[in-house]
Each structure stands twice: as structure tokens, then as C-alpha cells.
Design goal:
The chain is of the alpha+beta class. It folds into 2 domains: about 5-285, Di-copper center containing domain from catechol oxidase (di-copper center containing domain from catechol oxidase); about 310-475, Sandwich (Jelly Rolls). Helix content is about 35%, strand content about 10%. It has 14 helices and 10 strands. The protein has helices spanning about 5-20, 30-35, 55-75, 80-90, 100-120, 160-165, 165-175, 180-185, 200-215, 225-245, 255, 340-355, 415, 425-435, and strands spanning about 265, 270, 315-320, 330-335, 365-370, 380-385, 400-405, 420-425, 445-450, 470-475. A 4-stranded antiparallel sheet has the order 3-10-5-8. A 4-stranded antiparallel sheet has the order 4-9-6-7. β1 (about 265) and β2 form a beta hairpin. α1 (about 5-20) packs parallel to α3 (about 55-75) and α3 packs across α5. The radius of gyration is 23 Å and the shape is globular. About 45% of the residues are buried.
């Protein structure tokens, strides 16, 4: 760091400490923030990587401290810690296709504010790679640190489950070629908070980490906890990884592209509402990372048809789940697929069962709708054709489909319709065929198993997380 920059940091720090100036005075507007990202050699780095010369943790801690100081010295500043968290509470989209771009912009403008209060335009937010390091980084448990947050509902050594952030989950996300599974579901209006359904990236590692940590992280005030920003930097890193593997595939719907993301503040405190399509330029939003995720399977690299939101549906087979007895702890529903669904399953699983590499050109999706969550620590596992399913049934079972994690129960948009999700269950049907648990003719039994985020805790009854309806969709 040169002398001028060091002097600038010292001077601005002193002024901030006594509340003489607002951080809005320390950096230029949006053009300055964007210009700061032109050095492509600067990347967001793993907080646990311990890279030589890295001071990401020290800088982030200092930035958090200075933004929290604004809560006292200038509580009306949009750059203060609490007011930055209120942006999320008041505007964040979840369970729809603006989830990823909105949070990319949120990270970028927060990062520019960190740069301002630090006087360091090279600062980048670190990320927490929860697949490799399954506990919250130790620095966030130091009670004397600005990174500590007392409202977390877990212990320092607690580890997130493999069905939330494990390598198999990440591989599934990277392989996905269904737009709605990656970006989450479309809306039919420009309402940024209209609820649709959550895709795999949002519902599994994203929601799962929020639910695992609990406290404020389990609500829309989650940015009050400093770990939030590292969590979302890793979610964004997975989007960037997926984009690289899928030739920067993006949505083409005008409603999505032309939507103005609301609302953020630049480092001068000005309101900014960037177009969604602008977030596809990852470098312009500092979405460069020291390491991207790659696929573990060569088969997944085979060409596959790209499924758009407007893709014609070959079959849709629905069943009401609400008929399951509310007194049951675990519930199942028996379905009799029609010929169309059976044919779609056969077509979709054939390439996965073939001895030689074959392109996959169809999928079977499961949409789970209308879950009214009554217990914040309850999750829901789904199995197909599983004998005696229980909380102890391993996620490596051929019957396993997904684990549903919940986030944002304090958001009014979910109160009437409940939560909805969509998963790719093509591989599950292929595994069932391999093991003789589905012959392509007989019925299908879908089971719902509540589990608790806390190990050793008795799960809530099924009624607390029971869906209204499931639908199998063939594309």
C-alpha cells in the first residue's frame, strides 16, 4: 500500500470514528465504483484459504466495524450496517428468477461501500466455501470482534449436513441445464417479490445455510449477521461457475432482462436500480473468484438441450398431498402414472442407463407446492419408492430426491401461497431402475420425511411442512 493511500485510510478512519463525516464522502459515485473493478487480476478469495499476503479477513472486519459505527454516529446514512440490512428486508426477491441477479448487485454495492470506508478500491469480499469448510469460520465466533453475532442458533463446531452443501449437491447444481432450476421460477409481472418457486441452487445450499445458522440468518434481516455476505459471495461464485460451464447461458425473457433491480445505494448514498441484464457482465460486478467449481463427471459434459421457461411440457401429472393424515410423522402418497408420464420417464432415464455416453435431451422434474412452514428448524426430505423411509434413511439411497430447506418465513408473500420448489428427479428414476425399485410399469410411492436441522432433535410432525400438491413434469 502506498503512503498516500495509507494516509487516506488513517484520515478517513479518524473522521468516521468521531462521526464528523459520512462514508458517502469517501468515494465517488457509481462510475468510480465500476471503474475500480477494471483490474481483473483482483478476485474474491476463500476466507479459509490462508493465501500468502492475504489480509481479506482484517479488511472485512475493519469495514464491518466502521459501518456499525455509522449506526450510532449517523443512523440515517444508507451506508450504515443496519440500513444495509434493511435493503434486504424491504426489497430482496426470493423464490423467483431475480434471486441471483439481485443478490449479485447487492454484493457489489455493499462491497463498494466497504471500499469507501476502507479507502481501498482493491478490497474484495471474501467468500465462505461451505462445501469444503462446513463450520462457520472461527473468526466469526470471537465475541470481541465486529464479526460476532449473538443471535446465531448453533455452536461454533456445528457442521452443516452434506445434503445441504456436499459435493453431490454442488455437482447437481453445476450439471443442471433447466433455466428454472438454476435461476428459480419465473414471474408473470414486474413485481420483484412475486413468489414463484425456488430452484436447486436457491433451495438447497442457499436456504440450507440460512436455516442451519438460524437467528437473524433465518429471517430477511439476515445481513445483520456478518457471515451473510460471505455466504452470498459463495452462492454467487456457484452462479459464476455454472455460467462458465454453460457458455455464459442467460435468460432471454424481456421481463427478466428489462427489470430494474430495487434498490441499492452506491458509495455516495445515491439510490441505484440497475437493469437485471447488466448483472450478466460478471466482471463489472466484481464477480471474479480465485477458484471456480468444476464437474466431477465426464458424462455431464455431453451435449444437452437447453430448457427454457417457455419449453413445451410433454407431460404434467399432479397429485394432492393434502390428503395425507395430519397426525402422521412421515407420510406417503401412492400414484398411478399414466402412459405419458411412464414414457417420459423411460425417455429421460435411457441415456443415464446406457453403457456408452449419450446426450441427455429430456428430464423429469418434480414441483412441490404450497408448503406452510410452522417450525423454523424443520426440513423435508423426499423419497420415491422407498421402503420404510425415516430420518435415518441415507441420502445415498437410490430413492432419494432432495432435501427441502426453508428460508424467509417472515416474508408476507409466502403467507397465503406457501413455499414452492422444483427438483430434477431424472437421476432418481434412473437409480430406481438400476436397483429394481421401479420397473416402468407399476405405481410410484412418494414419501415425505421431516427432519430437524439440529442433530438428535425429534422432528416436527409432517403437518408442519406438508405440501399441498406435487407435480411431475416431463420436458
Amino acid at each position: 500500500m502506498n503512503t498516500n493511500r495509507r494516509q487516506f485510510i488513517q484520515a478517513s478512519s479518524a473522521l468516521l470514528a468521531v462521526g464528523v463525516v459520512d462514508a458517502t464522502m469517501l468515494l465517488g459515485g457509481p462510475s468510480s465504483a465500476v471503474a475500480a473493478v477494471t483490474n481483473s487480476s483482483i478476485t474474491r478469495r476463500d476466507i479459509n484459504a490462508n493465501l500468502p499476503g492475504s489480509n481479506d479477513l482484517v479488511l472485512y472486519t475493519t469495514a464491518v466495524q466502521r459501518m456499525k459505527a455509522l449506526d450510532q454516529s449517523n443512523p440515517k446514512s444508507p451506508l450504515s450496517w443496519k440500513n444495509q440490512a434493511l435493503i434486504h428486508k424491504n426489497y430482496c426477491p426470493h423464490s423467483n428468477w431475480w434471486f441471483l441477479p439481485w443478490h449479485r448487485a447487492y454484493l457489489f454495492y455493499f462491497e463498494s461501500i466497504c471500499q469507501a470506508v476502507l479507502g481501498d478500491s482493491d478490497f474484495r469480499l471474501p467468500y465462505w466455501n461451505w462445501t469444503r469448510d462446513r463450520s462457520i469460520p472461527a473468526a466469526f465466533w470471537n465475541k470481541k470482534s465486529p464479526l460476532y453475532h449473538s443471535l446465531r442458533d448453533l455452536n461454533p463446531n456445528d457442521e452443516v449436513d452434506g445434503d445441504v452443501t456436499g459435493s453431490t449437491v454442488i455437482d447437481r447444481i453445476l450439471k443442471n441445464n433447466v433455466d428454472a432450476l438454476h435461476f428459480s421460477g419465473p414471474t408473470d409481472s414486474d413485481d420483484q417479490r412475486q413468489s414463484s418457486f425456488a430452484g436447486t441452487l436457491e433451495s438447497t445450499p442457499h436456504n440450507g445455510i440460512h436455516q442451519f445458522i438460524g437467528g437473524d440468518m433465518g429471517t430477511y434481516l439476515s445481513p445483520e449477521d456478518p457471515i451473510f455476505w460471505l455466504h452470498h459471495a459463495n452462492v454467487d461464485r456457484l452462479w459464476r461457475s455454472w455460467s462458465e460451464l454453460h457458455e455464459n447461458r442467460a435468460l432471454t425473457d424481456k421481463l427478466w432482462n428489462n427489470h430494474k433491480l430495487s434498490q441499492f445505494y452506491d458509495a455516495k448514498g445515491n439510490v441505484v436500480r440497475p437493469l437485471t441484464e447488466s448483472t450478466l457482465d460478471a466482471a463489472a460486478y466484481n464477480a471474479d473468484y480465485d477458484q471456480l467449481e468444476t464437474l466431477s463427471s465426464n458424462r455431464a459434459r455431453q451435449p444437452m438441450r437447453a430448457f427454457a421457461f417457455t419449453q413445451e411440457v410433454s407431460v404434467a401429472f399432479s397429485a394432492r398431498v393434502s390428503a395425507i393424515d395430519d397426525t402422521l410423522k412421515i407420510g406417503s402418497i401412492d400414484l398411478k402414472p399414466d402412459g405419458q408420464l411412464r414414457n417420459s420417464i423411460s425417455k429421460a432415464t435411457a441415456p443415464l442407463l446406457a453403457l456408452e455416453e449419450k446426450p441427455v435431451d429430456s428430464v423429469i422434474l418434480m414441483k412441490v407446492e404450497g408448503i406452510q412452514v410452522k417450525n423454523k428448524t424443520t426440513r423435508l426430505r423426499i423419497f420415491i419408492n422407498c421402503d420404510n423411509p425415516s430420518a435415518d434413511t441415507p441420502i445415498g439411497s437410490p430413492s432419494y430426491v432432495a432435501t427441502i430447506n426453508f428460508f424467509g418465513g417472515d416474508h408476507g408473500h409466502h403467507e397465503k401461497r406457501g413455499f414452492s420448489f422444483m427438483y430434477d428427479c431424472t437421476a432418481t428414476f434412473a437409480n430406481l431402475k438400476k436397483t429394481g425399485l421401479y420397473n416402468g410399469v407399476d405405481g410410484i410411492k412418494v414419501s415425505f420425511v421431516p427432519i430437524d436441522t439440529k442433530k438428535g432433535v425429534e422432528p416436527a410432525p409432517l403437518v408442519d411442512v406438508k405440501p399441498e400438491q406435487i407435480t411431475f413434469i416431463g420436458l
